């Protein structure tokens, strides 16, 4: 392994299902991958130094942004990575200094220890993304922030397999708290989401497409674009923004452009609008639209226009001017969802679902609602993901489907009718909103006087990147079993670790729609 140009197996599409060793399937170069490893090793050094000294606001932000920076499809820029490493080294020195970790020592470790360490590292990268979204809204939790130092420092420690498993379960509980923090940040700032039909038709005239996950960036853009003659459209995981009262009140927030992140190179090609990337997932842009891309926060790519925050605010004037310069489409453009639909309805978060919990409970008791499926997660480009569309199409009419994450684009434009006055497909929001789904399950279990595993509920989850890892670890820490995961199992999970997960949690890979449906419904 030491002779490889790079080593990365953190995402679902990793080369040949094992690891990218010359360049990333995501588009990152070997130099970028190695700099991200160096950055991660420097964070271990920072954690060691700070654990012996005193955390600061600077060290906290470096720790969180550093982990977030290394998520798939976030940073492709060597110079910004070198600059970031320099900041870590300066902060580490200010805390007395400490040795960094060589990530090659993790990649070449015993495969089971490597597997467990990698699960923790990737989980923390995902949690860092959630935590940062809460922090920009001035929501903080000291226990969550402090745990990053504990977890990152642990990457350079020796533990038994059982101790690593215990640490992973502890992390899962901390991530639950982090997701709760983000839930409170979003709903406390923008109000509770309400079901809101969203069109996929793009009106003629100047427009800006906002992609990523950060609602705070969108809010600032909406404030600055008011009355400027520019329409705003969401893309990918920004779709749920339409459901928040404090965001949907802006008349220029018109609809949703395209589908999930992996289709951006096709959907953005030659589009006469400006594109703002607030977080992952950035794919290497084509020349046909690279001149109209703007990045911000931790998102970086060589030679793209980057919007920098100054005193807590961002100036999006350049984005607005670019949209006005390009002029938009001359006539309304009809775009569709994956299945040809032109309307999507986000907004079925925890508050909305629990407001009709009585209806759900009565329907279950009466036998009208036989089963609830959670079908969603992180989408990707790899073959086999049409499974999730076909699975939902084949769900019986006496079942409902909850969905979230960008995996919802496989099914969120389907019209599956209603059950007991409720739509059979209910979009709960971003992958960031997994907390809502978890708490709905917990509350339903309380109402029925049983455990979550005893509910007529099945989780069929797609995964792609690191936020899916931290959510999975939270589900496991809650003792939730029988999760079906796909389209393939993670390359970083060793056979022995997989056996433990199967034995303790009955986690299973997806197979065929027909076989899985029969198994989950036991019909």
Describe the structure.
The chain is of the alpha/beta class. Helices cover 44% and strands 12% of the residues. It has 19 helices and 18 strands. A 6-stranded parallel β-sheet has the order 5-4-3-6-7-8. A hairpin with a 2-residue loop joins strand 13 and strand 14 (422-423). It is globular and about 60 Å long. The termini are far apart.
Would you spell out the secondary-structure blueprint of this structure?
Layout: H1 30-51, H2 57-69, H3 78-94, H4 103-107, H5 111-135, H6 142-154, H7 161-190, E1 198-199, E2 201-202, E3 207-211, H8 215-225, E4 231-234, H9 245-248, E5 253-256, H10 264-267, E6 274-277, H11 287-290, E7 293-296, E8 305-307, H12 317-326, E9 333-334, E10 343-344, H13 350-355, H14 357-366, E11 371-377, H15 386-393, E12 399-403, E13 418-419, E14 422-423, E15 425-427, H16 434-448, E16 457-462, H17 466-477, E17 484-486, H18 495-505, E18 508-509, H19 513-521
Helix pairs in contact: 1-2, 1-3, 1-6, 2-3, 2-5, 5-6, 5-7, 5-17, 6-7, 7-17
Taking the sheet with the most strands, its summary is:
6 strands, parallel
- The structure class reads alpha/beta
Radius of gyration: 22 Å
Number of strands: 18
Ranges where pLDDT stays below 50 over 5 or more residues in a row are none
* Overall pLDDT metric: 96
Fraction of residues in helix:
40-55%
The shape is: globular
Binned strand content? 5-15%
* Number of alpha- plus pi-helical segments: 19
Strand order across the largest sheet: 5-4-3-6-7-8
Cα-to-Cα separation, first versus last residue:
48 Å
């Amino acid at each position: 392994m030491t002779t490889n140009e790079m080593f990365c197996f953190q995402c679902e599409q990793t080369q040949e299902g094992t690891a990218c060793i010359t360049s990333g399937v995501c588009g990152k170069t070997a130099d970028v991958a190695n700099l991200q490893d160096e950055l991660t090793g420097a964070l271990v050094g920072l954690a060691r130094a700070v654990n012996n000294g005193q955390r600061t606001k600077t060290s906290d932000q470096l720790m969180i942004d550093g982990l977030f920076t290394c998520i798939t499809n976030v940073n492709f820029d060597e110079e910004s990575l070198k600059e970031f490493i320099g900041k870590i080294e300066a902060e580490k020195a200010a805390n007395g200094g400490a040795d960094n970790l060589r990530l090659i020592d993790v990649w070449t470790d015993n495969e089971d220890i490597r597997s467990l360490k990698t699960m923790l590292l990737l989980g923390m990268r995902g949690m860092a993304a959630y935590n940062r979204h809460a922090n920009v809204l001035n929501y903080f939790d000291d226990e969550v922030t402090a745990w990053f130092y504990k977890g990152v420092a642990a990457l350079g420690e020796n533990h038994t397999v059982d101790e690593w498993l215990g640490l992973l379960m502890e992390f899962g509980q901390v991530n639950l708290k982090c997701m709760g923090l983000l839930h409170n940040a979003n709903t406390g700032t923008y109000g509770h989401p309400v079901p809101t039909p969203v069109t996929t038709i793009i009106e003629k005239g100047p427009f800006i497409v906002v992609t990523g996950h950060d609602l705070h960036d969108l809010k600032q853009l909406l404030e600055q674009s008011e009355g400027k003659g520019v329409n705003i459209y969401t893309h990918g995981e920004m779709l749920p923004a339409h459901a928040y009262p404090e965001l949907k009140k802006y008349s220029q927030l018109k609809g949703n452009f395209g589908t999930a992140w992996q289709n951006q190179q096709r959907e953005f090609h030659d589009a006469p609008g400006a594109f703002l990337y607030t977080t992952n997932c950035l794919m290497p842009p084509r020349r046909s639209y690279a001149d109209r891309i703007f990045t911000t926060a931790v998102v970086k790519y060589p030679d793209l226009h980057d919007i920098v925050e100054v005193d807590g605010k961002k100036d999006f004037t350049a984005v607005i001017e670019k949209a006005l310069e390009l002029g938009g489409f001359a006539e309304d453009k009809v775009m569709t969802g994956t299945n040809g639909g032109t309307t999507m309805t986000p907004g079925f978060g925890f508050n909305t679902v629990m407001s009709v919990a009585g209806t759900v409970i009565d329907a279950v008791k009466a036998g009208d609602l036989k089963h609830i499926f959670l079908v969603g997660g992180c989408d990707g480009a790899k073959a086999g993901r049409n499974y999730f569309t076909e699975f939902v199409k084949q769900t019986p009419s006496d079942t409902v489907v909850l969905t979230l994450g960008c995996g919802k684009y496989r099914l969120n434009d389907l019209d599956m009718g209603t059950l007991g006055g409720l739509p059979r497909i209910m979009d709960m929001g971003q992958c960031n909103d997994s907390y809502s789904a978890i708490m709905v399950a917990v509350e339903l279990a309380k109402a029925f006087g049983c455990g979550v595993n005893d509910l007529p509920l099945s989780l069929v989850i797609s995964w792609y990147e690191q936020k899916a890892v931290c959510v999975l670890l939270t589900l496991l820490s809650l003792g939730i079993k029988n999760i079906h995961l796909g389209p393939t199992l993670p390359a970083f999970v060793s056979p022995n670790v997989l056996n433990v997960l199967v034995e303790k949690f009955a986690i299973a890979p997806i197979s065929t729609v027909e076989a899985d449906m029969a198994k989950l419904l036991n019909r």
